[in-house]
Design goal:
Number of strands: 0
Domain RNA-polymerase II-associated protein 3-like C-terminal: 101-191
Helix content: 40-55%
Shape: globular
Number of domains: 2
Protein name: RNA-polymerase II-associated protein 3-like C-terminal domain-containing protein
Largest sheet: none
C-alpha cells in the first residue's frame, strides 16, 4: 500500500503510514528502505495520467456505443454477507467440500470462482495454502474481491485459538507483489470488518500496526 502511495507521489501520506510500523523488526526492513526514499518529500499537487498509445492492431474496429438505461445494483456490504453466512448451520458447513490446496494460479482462480459466495469455506481453503507459496501462486492473480472474501470469512471463523494464525496470514499477504494495488480498492466497509476483528480479539500492538499499514486501516 505504501509503495503504491510512493508511486502516486503521495510521499507525506506514505511517511505517516510507515510511522505506525515498528521498523526495528527485521521483517519490516523493506519498509525501512521505503521510509528513507519518501522521507522529507512533499505530496504532489497534481498527478497527470496519460493514456498509452495503442498499436493499430489492438484498436477496436467497432464504433463506440452509447449505453442507456443503466440499472445500478446495490451490492451487499460485508456486514450483510456475514449476517447471511452466520445463518448457515454447522451441518451445512460440514457438507461443503473444501478443495485441496492449489498448486497453480489457474487452480486458485478456478477454486475462488466456486467459493467466492462461501467466504467461510474460502477462508478455510486459503488457510490450507502454505504461506511460502503465496508469491508463486498469487503474485499475478490477487484481486480486491479475493481479499474482501477472505476478510469476511476470517471474521466469521475467528476465535481465541485461531486469531493469531488468521492475523499472520493477513500479514503474510504483504509478500505478494500486487497486494498494494488490490488493497488500494478495498472498500471502507471491509476495512471496518477487519478493524473490529482486531479489536474483538485484542491483536497485539505490533501485528495491529502492520495490519494498519498493509490494509490502510
Amino acid at each position: 500500500y505504501t509503495k503504491a502511495l510512493e508511486n502516486l507521489h503521495l510521499y507525506e501520506v506514505a511517511t505517516e503510514k510507515i510511522s505506525k510500523i515498528d521498523l526495528s523488526n527485521p521483517k519490516n526492513k523493506e519498509l525501512a528502505k521505503l521510509k528513507q526514499s519518501v522521507q522529507g518529500k512533499v505530496n504532489c499537487i497534481e498527478l497527470k495520467l496519460s493514456c498509452g498509445e495503442r498499436d493499430e492492431f489492438l484498436r477496436s474496429k467497432i464504433p463506440l456505443m452509447e449505453i442507456k438505461n443503466i440499472e445500478i445494483v446495490r451490492l451487499e456490504s460485508p456486514e450483510e454477507i456475514i449476517e447471511g453466512k452466520l445463518e448457515i448451520s454447522s451441518m451445512e458447513l460440514s457438507s461443503l467440500e473444501i478443495p485441496s490446496p492449489p498448486t497453480t494460479s489457474f487452480t486458485f482462480i478456478s477454486d475462488f470462482q466456486r467459493l467466492k459466495d462461501k467466504p467461510v469455506i474460502f477462508a478455510e481453503y486459503f488457510l490450507s495454502i502454505d504461506t511460502s507459496n503465496y508469491g508463486e501462486l498469487l503474485d499475478e492473480v490477487i484481486e480486491t474481491e479475493m481479499i474482501k472474501c477472505l476478510i469476511v470469512g476470517f471474521d466469521i471463523l475467528a476465535n481465541e485459538s485461531n486469531i493469531s494464525q488468521l492475523v499472520e496470514c493477513l500479514i503474510k499477504l504483504a509478500d505478494i507483489s500486487r497486494i498494494d494495488i488490490a488493497v488500494l480498492f478495498l472498500d471502507e466497509d471491509t476495512k471496518n470488518v477487519l478493524r473490529r476483528l482486531a479489536e474483538r480479539y485484542a491483536v497485539n500492538e505490533n501485528q495491529l500496526s502492520i495490519l494498519q499499514v498493509i490494509y490502510a486501516l
